[in-house]
Predict the structure.
Amino acid sequence: MNSGRSVFRLLCGLAALAALAMIGSNVAVILVRGAKSLPEALTQPETLFALVTSLKTASISTVLCFVLAVPTAYLLTRTEFPGRAAVEMLLELTLSLPYIVLGVSLLILFSSPAGKALKEAGLPVVFSQNGIVLAQLTVNLPFAVQLASTAFRRADRKLEYVAGLLGAGEARRFFTILLPLCRHSLAGALVLVWSRALGEFGATLMLVGVTRMKTETLPANIYLNVSANDLDGALASAFLLLVISGASLAAASRFTRVDKRWGRYV
């Protein structure tokens, strides 16, 4: 029995070492070569443009994402309505689709007469930075809804019931009971969604293309630099993405630890 357990643990350990080697080698290449190339890259206007564009579009799309995701998650977790299972299935389906497929559908939608009308009204989407925001929003919205739904489902509903018995309306219970209970979880989710938006590329490529100093985000900058055989510039941008993503993950983990410390659900 003990020898069988030892062999099993040894095999698990070997598999874990192989996984860590695969992941760690990629991270090490980006850290070592990217850090070496970063000082020079930061003097290039194109890299700074891509960084600013990424931070700006990711922030805008994340705010819009949660404006839509939080009410949607509330309806899915607190309301019974016909077709709720179909809605949840639709969200899960979009999570599993390649982002490039979502980008193609967005391109078709906004190349239609309605999209041209938006462009004439001063809101261009295709080949515009507005399209970057829209692509990030479309890709991350199902993920944000899922995270918010998980937080709402794990929140203790007894407090909401008691507040309802005391006469608090649904909106008041939402803003004074549910949101405060889930604030750390939602804050962590917001950071994760922002980090995902920062690295989005597939849908953005389809909808807005990759144009230097116009629709160039950090992932687009990496793509353009690799296409031009400038691996140092690509690794510098990859290093920036890695550092920002690592900081985002650390922030999200901290929010999770705060929830656990106070005995709240994530």
Observations:
- The CA atoms of residues 181 and 264 lie 7 Å apart.
- The chain has eleven helices and no strands.
- The longest helix spans residues 2-41.
